[in-house]
Specification:
The chain contains 14 helices and two strands; from the N terminus they run H-H-E-E-H-H-H-H-H-H-H-H-H-H-H-H. The protein is mainly α. Strand 1 and strand 2 form a beta hairpin. The chain is globular.
Length: 367
């Protein structure tokens, strides 16, 4: 009987992974929308807590302002990417000459004296499939961004009905309390992770921008933006974020000293933030094993690529919290946790959309 249950578990796991891979077009925008929804509510909660001469901002207005903030940030990011691409195209000839010099020097070490010119290389490359692939990727990104926007709007519009839906799912007060605790723990853990991680990514990008500006690296704003995004990927994101501007610096500087100095300083700053500041701020909020973080990073990277790497930690947090609530899956939560302690959930408020009055009315109905 036990062998049958294990076989069934492996079969279900395989089917879920296949579903996640095949349903990426539908599921990934939904996951991104949920994260955006968390960010909007986190910003809104901060705005509501601001006391201006005894006046606090209404929740609805705070939601609108936080949503507009997210939209403004997205448009600013698009503007950074587009303007940088235009400038790079205009300066392509300068970097092309530097690239040919680097390649010639490198190949000279292997005894190759005559190299084909850049024009000859481009002439031999079929650009049509490359252009089609890039166009398809941009079209897919635009459609996914549209779905993210639609999903986020519906989540924000329907979050007021979440407590009532939770009530409908509950048979009694005990079950309602358990469900409310589970969803509240998920809410607080994910909000904490997103808030602290965003602050760390912003700090890393800001410090990197100052360092790159100090050394005079071109497109420092663009590289800082990439560092901000890549730092959401645990462990490897900061390494890639340090490598990209350093590689580009090879095309700009003849002297290796500023390249090495800039790369080393950026890496040390990110290392300090990731290994000292972030753990201090996170504390034991997430309670995830380091090995599990690396495994989930690899797994979700295989399933959804870079986006899967970014969302690997929040998804693992949710899995641990949900598994800890049921006796049959509790061993899974213990194995995934950092210290095996899944018995002491945090004291957290109710669901995002549940005010004190609404929570009281729901409990009265259950009674």
């Amino acid at each position: 009987m036990k062998a049958v249950r294990i076989a069934a578990l492996f079969l279900i796991t395989a089917l879920v992974i296949i579903l996640l891979i095949q349903g990426e077009t539908l599921l990934l925008p939904l996951v991104i929308a949920i994260c955006v929804w968390f960010i909007v509510n986190t910003i809104a909660s901060a705005l509501v807590r601001i006391d201006i001469l005894g006046w606090n901002m209404p929740r609805g207005l705070a939601i609108v302002l936080s949503s507009l903030t997210i939209i403004a940030v997205i448009f600013m990011a698009i503007e950074i990417i587009v303007s940088t691409a235009e400038t790079m195209v205009a300066d392509a000839e300068i970097y092309q000459q530097r690239l040919q010099t680097l390649i010639a020097n490198a190949m000279g070490l292997f005894g190759v004296k005559e190299l084909p010119s850049f024009a000859q290389i481009v002439h031999d490359v079929d650009l049509e499939p490359i252009a089609a692939s890039v166009g398809g990727a941009l079209s897919n990104a635009a459609s996914q961004l549209l779905f993210v926007f639609i999903y986020t709007i519906f989540l924000l519009a329907e979050q007021g009905s979440f407590p009532k839906k939770l009530l409908a799912l509950s048979k009694n007060r005990r079950q309602y309390t358990q469900l409310n605790k589970t969803f509240s723990n998920i809410n607080e853990s994910v909000k904490t992770y997103i808030s602290i991680k965003t602050a760390i990514c912003l700090a890393a990008a800001t410090l990197a921008f100052l360092v790159m500006s100090l050394f005079g690296l071109d497109y420092a704003v663009f590289w800082a933006f990439l560092i901000f995004l890549l730092n959401y990927i645990p462990t490897f994101g900061s390494m890639i974020g340090t490598l990209l501007p350093a590689v580009f610096a090879l095309l700009q500087f003849d002297d290796p000293t500023p390249i090495v100095g800039m790369a080393l300083l950026i890496y040390l700053l990110q290392f300090f933030l990731a290994n000292f500041v972030e753990p201090k701020l996170m504390g034991n909020t997430l309670n995830i094993s380091t090995m599990v973080v690396l495994l989930s990073l690899s797994l979700w990277g295989l399933i959804w690529g870079v986006a899967g790497m970014i969302f690997s930690v929040p998804i693992t947090v949710i899995i641990i919290i949900v598994c800890a609530e049921f006796p049959s899956t509790r061993p899974v939560a213990i194995l995934l946790s950092a210290d095996g302690d899944v018995n002491s959930p945090k004291e957290v408020p109710g669901l995002i959309a549940t005010g004190a009055g609404e929570a009281t009315r729901l409990e009265e109905v259950l009674d």
